[in-house]
Amino acid sequence: MPINTGITLARSAGLLRFDPDSPDTLPADRRRADGKTEHQVLFDMWVHEGLEKLERFPERPGRLGDPDDLDRNTDGFNAPSPDEPLRATRYDDQGRPVAGVRFAYLRPAQAGACPGRCQVIRCDSGSDPARCHVGYELSTS
After folding, report:
1. Cβ contacts of residue 130 below 8 Å, gap of 6+?
2. What is the chain's Cα-based Rg?
3. What pairs with residue 88 in β-bridges?
4. Which residue from 9, 86, 2, 15 is spatially nearest to 44, judged by alpha carbons?
5. How many Cβ atoms sit within 10 Å of the Cβ of residue 113?
6. Is the pLDDT of residue 110 over 50?
7. What residue segments make up the domains of the chain, in order of their start?
8. Which of 16, 19, 107, 125 could join 38 in a cystine, given CB atoms 3.0 to 4.6 angstroms apart?
């Protein structure tokens, strides 16, 4: 599925906030420090395009934006990421996480295959969707 389709589905499901004045805006203690909505973070990082050939980050050629930065910049791909990871999550009335969306940056599109190892992201069922485990598996390609 193209990344822009996934973003549209997540937005229509209510997982990505795009209106800061919406009644479902996060409480102050769960808002981003930079004041941006999830949609604005994705837009600012050109994630909706998903085309490395446009070179939106000339200081990091062939790289796409990594809004969730699930690997905390440890995968060696040097993908641009925000100071504060996206981690778009919806909470119930008691403040418990009930749904979320993550944007996994598995490898640079330019590479074509993982260089030696691929990033694998696993989330335990029933756990906080903001807490995913990042690991690596050797590439077979």
Report:
1. 87, 89, 97, 100
2. 16
3. 101
4. 86
5. 10
6. no
7. 1-141
8. 16
